[in-house]
Inverse folding.
């Protein structure tokens, strides 16, 4: 587990107790990263966004008024998240804990039973009505559908797949059904396979699954499996198939095989909600879903590798689809 304390007027280490700094009444933020920053663009962007907001807030302020930022990276073992989140709140020195994961609201409510004054801002999650929690959720129906649509258009064999790290409600109820619908709306005869790695880090297993499904004729895959995606990319290159990417601009990871990137603008949202909290304007108890029409989900259509890898007629179809979603003309129903 990695821990980092930061004062963003001057970067320095702080003690784990933080008591003397709390007495100075500095605004204090903890970022709880339920994973590994290096393996997850979503968590990297979370940290970057919060950090940018704190840097902006601290500009020109004396040290005793500057916001304190602590980043806690807790790894991919979900069985440990509740305990580690409770331990973080138990220090009772953080005015707000900011995190991002659909499972965090339930964990936060468990923590609030013991520490009822703790505040949480949670992205990529939904929980309405709790006065200590504010959530912002990405419209992953849009995100999954658009990704599936280009997969369906680009599959020569009309066989696509999604490789997930594991089963979880958002995947089972939103992302995969939306991906499947998008692929079949693009080409009705498309079959859509679904496989599970079993964790968020096993690149070898990701490669093995990719090799296996390529033998069935699958020629476009969406990996949503954290560090295991590296194995999927390697196997995709070997099998000469295509990859649709999720949550970040992934073209540079494997420009020869990646055909699309449908990213959430987590850094932008994290910066905004942190700035809002620092200004005392957080709408506690609220839950908002944001999507393409709000500027928080983006289908990247100007990357040189997208233009190179995707035929013009497909690009035109994708532009038309995205514009219909942004304008509200197309409302996707699962």
């Amino acid at each position: 587990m990695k821990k980092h304390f930061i004062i963003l007027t001057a970067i320095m280490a702080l003690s784990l107790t933080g008591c003397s700094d709390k007495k100075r009444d500095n605004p204090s933020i903890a970022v709880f990263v339920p994973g590994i920053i290096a393996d997850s663009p979503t968590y990297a962007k979370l940290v970057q966004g919060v950090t940018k907001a704190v840097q902006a807030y601290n500009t020109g302020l004396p040290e005793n008024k500057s916001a304190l930022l602590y980043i806690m990276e807790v790894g991919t073992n979900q069985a440990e998240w509740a305990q580690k989140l409770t331990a973080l709140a138990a220090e009772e020195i953080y005015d707000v804990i900011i995190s991002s994961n659909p499972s965090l609201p339930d964990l936060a409510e468990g923590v609030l039973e013991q520490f009822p004054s703790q505040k949480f801002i949670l992205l990529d999650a939904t929980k309405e009505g709790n006065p200590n929690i504010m959530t912002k959720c990405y419209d992953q129906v849009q995100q999954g559908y658009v990704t599936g649509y280009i997969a369906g258009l680009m599959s020569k064999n009309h066989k696509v797949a999604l490789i997930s790290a594991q089963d979880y409600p958002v995947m089972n109820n939103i992302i995969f059904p939306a991906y499947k619908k998008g692929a079949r709306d693009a080409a009705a005869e498309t079959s859509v396979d679904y496989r599970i790695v079993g964790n968020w880090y096993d690149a070898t297993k990701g490669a093995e699954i990719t090799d296996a499904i390529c033998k069935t004729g699958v020629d476009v895959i969406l990996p949503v499996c954290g560090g295991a995606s590296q194995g999927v990319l390697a196997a995709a290159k070997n099998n000469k198939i295509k990859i649709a990417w999720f949550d970040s601009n992934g073209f540079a990871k494997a420009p020869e095989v990646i055909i699309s990137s449908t990213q959430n603008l987590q850094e932008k949202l994290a910066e905004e909600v942190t700035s809002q909290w620092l200004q005392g304007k957080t709408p506690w108890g609220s839950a908002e879903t944001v999507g393409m029409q709000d500027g928080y989900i983006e289908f990247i259509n100007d990357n040189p590798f997208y233009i190179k890898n995707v035929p013009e007629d497909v690009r035109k179809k994708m532009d038309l689809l995205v514009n219909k979603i942004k304008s509200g003309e197309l409302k996707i129903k699962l």
Summary: Residues 41-58 form the longest helix (18 residues). The mean pLDDT is 92. DSSP finds eleven helices and 13 strands in the chain.
